[in-house]
Every structure is written in structure tokens, then in C-alpha cells.
Specification:
With 429 residues, the chain is of the alpha/beta class. The protein contains 12 helices and 25 strands. It has 2 domains: 221 residues, P-loop containing nucleotide triphosphate hydrolases (Rossmann fold), CATH 3.40.50.300; 188 residues, Rossmann fold.
Length: 429
């Protein structure tokens, strides 16, 4: 029997859908269900929490940058009995061109939506988002709602009554619990591997879900996943033997990209710069993903073996590529939040600052310049607070446009076979 699934979404960010998703994943796993997870959009952090909750890797499903056949194939490839897809932002929120929302993803996958409603500051008005979603997207199946952050059981009953009267299924209500709060930093939640007491948090969330929600009704609402047999274009690998930085400083590598590279015959070799490890001496490519190098700048500056082996890789002609945090690490220096400068790898003429912060966020349409690792148009995403203080003479990496095609300044730098930019590449355009 094919796997089934549903999408957990909310009218706005901050409604508690991540906590609800994690509690559901852990609760369903306790039931013995082979449950898997996915995240709508280009989020790097939530999938690691999903994996901690259900014990299986989570994957990004981005309805803006991935064609429908890729979305269906990646969802199907998750396997298991049940796929729980967590939405991003509000259920209808998308790129500047209006595409890529959790609702769009649910439509492509043919899955129903469970809408998480934060009722902390509302009563009967809790009905309005559900009515609004059905009015704006009448063809989208709304399986029902989960009330979150009710003050009391009586408050939950008051909020649920008009929903019941309107024929909207209420799967249950979670009352406020100050212990169900995950720590955050500037790019979102603190990473799963750095979150103290995560397992206890997941168990508490599961306990609350089991006590407060109708799990049988939620399971009955799930619909079969579509066939994933269609073919689609994949991003070519950087090399045949790719060393990939992987630790708390460089954690933002899309699982689907590494899986696609492996499926095309590349060998993926993880290493940890924070453990003063470097790329494999036989690798023909090195990938430094995004992450939080600004939090570990002093440690990276003092990692002599890492720095030496990175220079060796560049000198022997390996393709060296860095994205966002990895791009910053390839530069000459990084200014941390306290204003202290730390020496980076010095492979690109670049100095970046986290003290002079500015939010840059959005989807990107990228055209590689001559010498770049890939040819042909690419789709990606940019999300960072760090700024560029200084750039030296070097070729640019990408011609860039935003989601609606507005031209942006050319992005990134390349020197020989070393290249990087603030953009996270998601796949071919």
C-alpha cells in the first residue's frame, strides 16, 4: 500500500506548527507507525528537528524552485507509511511572484491541510482563518484544524464551537505550555544538535499531543501520496569525490542535493572543520555549506589542519565551493558580532561582517558566469544578516534576479577553481 500524508500549516508564522509537527511525529512513532517528515520551502533547521522526532531523515520540498515531478518524486522517496509535511510561514505565503506556498505544495502533492490556529488571543474569531483559506483556495482540501495555545479547556471549547457549527473538523486543542518553547537565534531555531534537552522536549510535546488531539481522526484524514515515477533534472555534482564540511558551523546543506549528487555517482565525504579536520586529500571537490561560521569564527581561525588542507585542495586544483556561511569562510576575514576580526581561509578576496548586520532574504534566479561550477540557469535562495565589508579584484560568480525577475547586483566571487556566494542553490532553473 502506498504511503499517505498531510500538510501541517498555519495562517501565520509563529502559530506553533513546528511544535505541533514535532509532537505528532514523536506520538505517531510511539504508536509504531513508520512516519517520515518533510519541510515546505528552503528551511535548513526544521528538518533536523523532524529527524530527531521520528528517527528518519527529513527533506525539503520547495514548490517555488522544484518542478511538480521533482516534488512528487522526492515526497514518494521518503518512504514509510505516513509523510507529515510541515509548512513554512503562513499557508498562502510565497515568493514575491506569489508562488511556492505551503498551499501550492499541498496542491501539487494532492494532500490535505491540517491548519494550526493560535487561539491565545481569540475566541469565536478562530473560525476566520479557516473560512478565509477555503474562500481563497476552494479546491484545496482542508482536513480540519488544530487549536493551539488555548488558555483553558473552556477557552478551547468556546473557540471550537463556531468551527463545529460551520462543519470544520476540530482535531483537538492544545493549551498553553511554557515548557514547549524552543530557543531561537538570528536565522531561526537553535540547531537540533545544539538544543539541550531536546529528547525530553519531544517527549513532552508527544505527551500533550496524545492527551489533547484525536490521533485516529488525524490518521484517517491522510491521503495517498502521488506516484513519484516522473523524471526531473538534478544539479550535477561538484566532482566525483566531494568532501563536504558538516558540523555546527556548516550545517546548511540540502539533503536532496547531496542525495542527488550521490545518485549521479559522486562519493560524499563529510568532515568537521570544528574538529580541525580537512577535506580528503584525494577529493576533487570541496563543498562548504552555509551555517553559523560567525559563532565559531575564533575556533575556525585557529583550526590549523583545516586551514592547511583547504589550501592544499585549492592548490592541487580541486573545485572549492562555498555557500553563504561557507562563502564567508573562504574569505580573508570575518568580523563577529562583538567587532573582533578573525582570519578566514583567504581563498577569496572578501571580508564580511556580522557586526554590521542587514537582513537579506528571498528567492534568486541565477545565471552562472564563465568558470562557475555549473552551466545553465539555477534557482536558489538567499537568507543572511552578514554584510560584505570589502571585495577585491575577482570575477563574479552569478548574474542574479529576484523571484519576479528584477535584476540584482551580480553575486559571488571566483578565483581559479575556488568560488562562492551568499546564494544557496536549490536546483536547476
Amino acid at each position: 500500500m502506498s504511503a499517505r500524508g498531510f500538510v501541517i500549516a498555519a495562517p501565520t508564522s509563529g502559530a506553533g506548527k513546528t511544535t505541533v509537527t514535532l509532537g505528532l511525529l514523536r506520538a505517531l512513532k510511539r504508536r509504531g507507525i513508520d512516519v517520515r517528515a518533510a519541510k515546505s520551502g528552503p528551511d535548513y533547521i526544521d528538518p533536523a528537528f523532524h529527524e530527531a522526532a521520528c528517527g528518519a531523515p527529513s527533506v525539503n520540498l520547495d514548490a517555488w524552485s522544484m518542478p511538480p515531478e521533482a516534488l512528487r518524486a522526492r515526497a514518494s522517496a521518503q518512504g514509510g507509511e505516513l509523510l507529515v509535511v510541515e509548512g513554512a510561514m503562513g499557508v498562502l505565503d510565497a515568493g514575491r511572484d506569489g508562488k511556492g506556498s505551503a498551499a501550492d505544495l499541498a496542491e501539487v502533492l494532492g494532500l490535505p491541510i491540517l491548519l494550526v490556529l493560535d487561539v491565545a488571543k481569540s475566541g469565536q474569531s478562530a473560525l476566520l482563518p479557516a473560512i478565509g483559506l477555503q474562500a481563497l483556495r476552494p479546491d484545496l482540501p482542508l482536513a480540519g484544524v488544530i487549536l493551539n495555545r488555548a488558555g483553558t479547556k473552556a477557552h478551547a471549547t468556546m473557540a471550537a464551537r463556531p468551527l463545529d457549527e460551520a462543519g470544520t473538523t476540530v482535531f483537538g486543542a492544545l493549551t498553553r505550555d511554557t515548557a514547549l518553547h524552543l530557543p531561537e537565534r538570528h536565522l531561526g531555531l537553535v540547531q537540533a544538535g545544539e538544543t539541550e534537552g531536546l529528547d525530553a522536549f519531544l517527549d513532552r510535546a508527544a505527551d500533550r499531543v496524545i492527551a489533547s488531539l484525536d490521533l485516529d481522526a488525524i490518521l484517517d484524514a491522510a491521503e495517498p501520496l502521488p506516484s513519484g515515477e516522473g523524471d526531473f533534472a538534478r544539479l550535477p555534482p561538484l566532482g566525483r569525490r566531494i568532501s563536504v564540511a558538516s558540523d555546527a558551523a556548516f550545517a546548511f546543506a540540502y539533503p536532496h542535493l547531496l542525495a542527488d549528487w550521490h545518485a549521479q555517482g559522486a562519493q560524499i565525504l563529510p568532515f568537521s572543520p570544528l574538529d580541525d579536520k580537512g577535506p580528503d586529500p584525494l577529493s576533487d571537490a570541496v563543498y562548504l555549506p552555509g551555517g553559523y561560521p560567525e559563532l565559531f569564527a575564533g575556533q575556525l581561525a585557529g583550526a590549523g589542519k583545516f586551514r592547511s588542507l583547504m589550501r592544499d585542495a585549492a592548490e592541487r586544483g580541486a573545485r572549492v565551493y562555498g555557500e553563504c556561511g561557507g562563502f564567508m569562510a573562504l574569505g580573508q576575514g570575518l568580523i563577529d558580532a562583538e567587532g573582533e576580526r578573525h582570519e578566514m581561509l583567504g581563498l577569496l578576496p572578501l571580508t564580511t561582517s556580522f557586526r554590521q548586520r542587514k537582513l537579506t532574504l528571498g528567492y534568486r534566479r541565477l545565471t552562472p558566469m564563465p568558470g562557475a561550477p555549473w552551466k545553465g540557469p539555477l534557482l536558489g535562495h538567499e537568507f543572511h544578516y552578514a554584510t560584505i565589508l570589502q571585495e577585491g579584484a575577482a570575477a563574479r560568480l552569478f548574474v542574479a534576479n529576484d523571484a519576479v525577475g528584477v535584476k540584482l547586483p551580480e553575486m559571488g566571487l571566483q578565483v581559479g577553481r575556488v568560488a562562492g556566494s551568499y546564494a544557496h542553490v536549490i536546483g536547476p532553473g
